[in-house]
Write a structure and sequence with these properties.
0% strand; mainly alpha
């Protein structure tokens, strides 16, 4: 009976496991955060904290400049309805930029602006879009051909 109680006490509850992983994330211990969020998602995939864990897992990979893995993890989050969608789209665009996929980055940012136009992330996306794809310069106005006044003939 005592060994059973000890075993049960050593199993972290969802909130504790998430908080530990998030603390590692906040303190920049990204390898520990990745391990913690992965463990959380394996044990509690249906938890209310699953979307949050998925977001921070992806962001941890982004922080380590593991762009391909970050992209895959953000895509997992984007495949489900999530309150993190605007943030995930913006961070996904950062991963694509890190991979040199400029066209895909632009498409992701365009999607973000279209889906969440009033979000702070959309404002950031608009700034990035202006930097990576500045608007085409407007051509200078065409000069009208000069109309020369008729020359007077001498007396």
């Amino acid at each position: 009976l005592l060994s059973q109680a000890t075993t049960q006490a050593s199993v972290p509850v969802p909130g504790e496991l998430y908080r530990a992983a998030y603390a590692d994330y906040q303190s920049g211990k990204l390898d520990l955060a990745i391990s913690g969020f992965k463990s959380f998602l394996e044990r509690y995939p249906e938890s209310d904290l699953a979307d949050s864990s998925q977001f921070y897992l992806a962001d941890s990979f982004l922080g380590k400049k593991n762009f391909e893995r970050a992209l895959g993890e953000f895509d997992k989050l984007l495949s489900v309805v999530s309150e993190y969608r605007p943030q995930a789209l913006l961070k996904r665009s950062y991963a694509l930029a890190g991979m040199g996929q400029d066209s895909a980055q632009k498409d992701t940012l365009d999607t973000l602006v279209k889906e969440s136009p009033t979000s702070p992330e959309a404002q950031t996306a608009k700034q990035i879009l202006a930097e990576i794809a500045p608007p085409a310069p407007t051509p200078p106005p065409q000069e009208e051909p000069s109309k020369s006044s008729p020359q007077k003939k001498g007396p």
